[in-house]
């Protein structure tokens, strides 16, 4: 039972919070609508002030919602517009904190995963992929995520996936070659193998041949073979990013430390296993595995060691299978040789 006066206070608080969020959304929306290359510096400064004046959670959610609504539509968005929006996220990621880029990246990747599984006819997937590609171009995320997405697309290898592979390689192919040439070579070999074993109707498509030619051009570092490839806009905005970062910090802070080295699997299972890539990210789940797995694993262990040891392991917060196993081995071994043998097993 909630007394009426407490209920009234809670309702007033909710209304006040809703009003504040509405005001914040209007302010952020106004800034995003005016965003362009010349005023990027002043708008990023105003956004930083809003981050200082409001809670990070509210700001991250508001900014992500507005950017997603602006960039993820059923029609293909202009590349320049997407680049400018992502550059703003990158500047905030480096100047405010990595949780800004992390929150936006997670929302984009989850939306992409959801739409790639559906039969959507629009260009939403391309727009989301462009956002991810430019997050990599502007040093928010590491190439590990891009390779994970490419591997996933190559493993499916349908017409839609081939289109997306081409789109992604055109945006970030040469950067991937610079960052990890070996991984790109392996990906090209896998794509060639898939193309050879694919159905006849897919094999004969000019799109598949064009994709393989593009991949070979990337491997040979031959930019002329890729039609419509123009690195100029990205390079120009990268230069602007370095200038802005230099003005704010009086030293180049755009280094590898701020890049999120996170895999596709980690992002998609963030709600279940926590966000290890954000320092201080609170998470209520324990242990960091599925409940079903933990129950079956626990039964397995209880058969081998006494329930007293398992209870002790739980009290000592041994919250994963491997930790529990090592703890039980150490507690039940006769001597160091016995412990060594058990740990090897």
Give a topology summary.
Elements: H1 4-33, H2 40-53, H3 56-71, H4 79-95, H5 98-117, H6 124-137, H7 143-156, H8 159-179, H9 181-197, H10 200-203, H11 206-219, H12 232-249, H13 264-268, H14 270-273, H15 291-304, H16 307-315, H17 321-332, H18 336-344
Helix pairs in contact: 1-2, 1-3, 2-4, 3-5, 4-5, 4-6, 4-12, 5-6, 6-8, 7-8, 7-9, 8-9, 8-11, 9-11, 16-17
Rg measurement, Å: 25 Å
Derived from helix and strand composition plus strand pairing, the structural class reads mainly alpha
CATH topology of the largest domain: Serine Threonine Protein Phosphatase 5, Tetratricopeptide repeat
Mean of residue pLDDT? 81
Globular, elongated, flat, extended or rod-shaped: what is the shape? globular
As a percent range, the share of helical residues equals over 70%
Q: How many discrete structural domains? A: 2
């Amino acid at each position: 039972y909630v007394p009426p006066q407490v209920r009234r206070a809670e309702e007033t608080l909710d209304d006040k919070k809703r009003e504040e969020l509405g005001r914040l959304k209007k302010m952020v929306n106004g800034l995003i609508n005016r965003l362009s290359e010349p005023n990027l510096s002043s708008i990023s400064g105003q956004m930083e002030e809003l981050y200082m004046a409001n809670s990070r959670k509210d700001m991250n959610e508001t900014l992500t919602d507005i950017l997603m609504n602006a960039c993820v539509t059923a029609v293909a968005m202009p590349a320049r517009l997407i680049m400018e929006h992502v550059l703003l996220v990158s500047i905030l990621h480096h100047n405010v904190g990595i949780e800004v880029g992390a929150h936006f990246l997670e929302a984009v990747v989850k939306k992409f995963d959801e739409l790639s599984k559906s039969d959507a006819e629009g260009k939403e997937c391309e727009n989301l992929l462009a956002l991810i590609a430019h997050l990599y171009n502007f040093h928010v995320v590491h190439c590990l995520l891009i390779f994970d997405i490419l591997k996933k697309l190559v493993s499916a290898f349908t017409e839609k996936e081939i289109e997306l592979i081409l789109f992604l390689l055109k945006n970030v192919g040469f950067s991937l070659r610079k960052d990890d040439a070996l991984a790109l070579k392996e990906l090209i070999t896998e794509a060639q193998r898939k193309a050879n074993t694919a159905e006849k109707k897919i094999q004969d498509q000019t799109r598949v041949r064009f994709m393989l030619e593009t991949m070979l051009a990337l491997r040979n570092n031959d930019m002329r073979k890729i039609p419509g490839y123009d690195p100029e806009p990205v390079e120009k905005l990268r230069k602007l990013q370095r200038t802005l970062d230099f003005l704010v910090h009086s030293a180049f802070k755009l280094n590898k430390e701020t890049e999120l080295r996170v895999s596709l699997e980690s992002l998609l299972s963030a709600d279940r296993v926590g966000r290890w890539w954000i320092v201080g990210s609170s998470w209520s789940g324990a242990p960091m595995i599925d409940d079903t797995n933990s129950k079956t694993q626990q039964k397995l262990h209880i058969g081998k060691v006494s329930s007293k040891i398992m209870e002790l392991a739980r009290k000592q917060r041994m919250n994963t299978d491997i930790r529990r196993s090592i703890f039980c081995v150490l507690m039940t071994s006769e001597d160091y040789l016995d412990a060594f043998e058990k740990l090897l097993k």
